[in-house]
Amino acid sequence: MESIRVYAPATVANVACGFDIFGFAVNHPGDEVVLTKSSTPGIRINEITGDDGRLPKDVLKNTAGIAIMKYLEHIGQPDQGFELSLHKDMPLGSGLGSSAASAVAGVFAANELMGKPLSQKELLPFAMEGERVACGSAHADNVGPSLLGGFVIIRSYDPLDIIQIPTPSDLYASIVHPQIEVNTKDARRILEREITLHKTITQMGNVAGLVAGLLLPDYQLIGRSLVDVIIEPARAILIPQFDVVKAAALEAGALGCSISGSGPSLFALSKGKETATRVAAAMAAGFHQVGIGTEEYVSEINQQGPMIR
Amino acid sequence: MESIRVYAPATVANVACGFDIFGFAVNHPGDEVVLTKSSTPGIRINEITGDDGRLPKDVLKNTAGIAIMKYLEHIGQPDQGFELSLHKDMPLGSGLGSSAASAVAGVFAANELMGKPLSQKELLPFAMEGERVACGSAHADNVGPSLLGGFVIIRSYDPLDIIQIPTPSDLYASIVHPQIEVNTKDARRILEREITLHKTITQMGNVAGLVAGLLLPDYQLIGRSLVDVIIEPARAILIPQFDVVKAAALEAGALGCSISGSGPSLFALSKGKETATRVAAAMAAGFHQVGIGTEEYVSEINQQGPMIR
Predict the structure, then answer these.
(1) Which class is domain B171-300?
(2) Which pLDDT tens digit goes with each residue over B287-306?
(3) Which residue in B11, B184, B275, B294 is the catalytic one?
(4) Which residues of A touch B201 (CB under 8 A)?
(5) Mean pLDDT of chain B
(6) For the segment A45-97, what is each residue's pLDDT rounded down to a tens digit?
(7) Rounded Cα distance, A29 and A96, in Å
(8) Minimal CB count within 10 Å: which of A52, A137, B229, B303?
């Protein structure tokens, strides 16, 4: 095999209460990479579409490029040549794990073309290196679910311990991206560095409740647990209409609603596709009220991670 | 029915990572209450055994007395008379939920004698009032599992939201009580009031991992998640030999080991009764090294809460 086309899913990180430890993947949107082996050493990024010319073609500055490079070094083939095209099928800087999806698609494609020397889970550290380029630190809460699919717990970063848990079959995500931008680095900077013991306990209760709700399963418990007393209050300020949109989601029947990753996209979880569709429309309307355009997505929880197309 | 004998189980609260939100019940030790209806209004505590004369017979200062009183007020029968005897079959001030077990046994017995106007779960607020007498605040992480059995998550205190989750059938607790005392109020006072975001994230990861480990089930994940970076480091200082005893538990095959409630008892969780028995002996030996006497208990996770005897 000399060429491959891989699609990696967008992801919702944090999932309300689980800052840096929870994430899940959706079936769409996502990113597509076309990777082709080359006899000329080095990785060349020939084409990037869907980014309005904003992403760097310099391999050392591109999340997919870095991820593939680190992977090739690890498997002892640093001189393997690759031609890469990247097709963004999702908004940049949206809080939907855009950089993670590119890194995952790239490293997954490379591993396929190299004859799969590593398992899917073993690709994680290289995709995380791609994330480091994009947001300054190697987080796994987008890369983990994009690579593995499903709902993912990052129990520990050192050593890395990632657990994938099943989700109820009728659980749907509504995602609304308002056409404004929040820089991930800024969104991290405004967080408090010290949390009261009381808030920590509240957050832990919701973390425990969400995992239990997903596994039992218990949709109402999932809903009661989608509460974030630490991150959401700080970041909501950066998102116009946040309170209106969240209230609209709950009013339309969502189990819960919060910020996707560092925003500005919001996500909601609902039981059933019909409710999730209604919820997405209600959320979008909340932004439209003040003239902010949106993209909306409704999806089941993606269960497989990257797909060869 | 005019008289009833009820046994309520001891409990391990916090369970390493879950300060104030996790607890589980064991089959023994526990507390026994004998409650008898009386035509004379008011609650009289006639006998308390197993406490070396340390517990108050004044109803307003006794956890079982308060719990029953609050219960009778709630059901609109404040003048119902009761004679109560309390038999402590567990050490006081041990971190095993001694006051909670008394309150649970008392209120459960009263509800039975009154014809069960309330469900078992509805008794919780009254047992919590008993806890308030003992430790200054109305915690649910001992009362909850003692009343409901099993492994319990307190997702929220306001409103109270308690979730019972199943535990793997081969999960055993080893509990070792060193014959020293730690006052619960002191043990709370030494805790930091502010937690770094980094520690909060680590703790949340372990909370999520423990719930997932219990429900999947995955014994190794349970073990990896029995880590407490917030409370244990502060409280371990109050327990002589803590590091030695914990290391001995892990060496003997425990999945994990930490402080039960506010201590000084330590607990470990293991797969299988044989391992749990070996672990308890190893832990006890760690205290004996320095001349501290112990009581040891090995038990499955109790699944039913109070029992009529």
Answers:
(1) alpha beta
(2) 999 999 999 999 999 999 99
(3) B184
(4) 19-21
(5) 94
(6) 999 999 888 888 888 899 999 999 999 999 999 999 999 999 998 988 889 99
(7) 9
(8) A52
Residue B184 among the catalytic residues: yes
Record the tokens describing residue B81, joined without a space.
């008379």
**Which residues on chain B are in Cβ contact (under 8 Å) with A207?**
204, 207-208
B3-165 has CATH 3.30.230.10 classification: yes
Domain regions of chain B by residue span? 3-165, 171-300
Asked if B196's CB is within 8 angstroms of A192's CB, the reply is no
ipTM: 0.94
Contact residues of B toward A, CB < 8 A: 17-22, 153-157, 161, 163, 165, 191-197, 200-212, 215-216, 218, 221, 224-225, 230
The alpha carbon dihedral of A67, A69, A74, A80 has a sign of positive
Among chain B residues, CA nearest to A166: B216
In this structure, which topology does domain A3-166 adopt according to CATH? Ribosomal Protein S5; domain 2 (3.30.230)
Q: B-chain residues within 8 Å CB-CB of A193?
A: 196-197
Catalytic hit among B32, B129, B131, B232:
B131
Position A184 scores a pLDDT of 60
B49 in catalytic set: no
- pLDDT range class, residue B233, cuts 50, 70, 90: very high
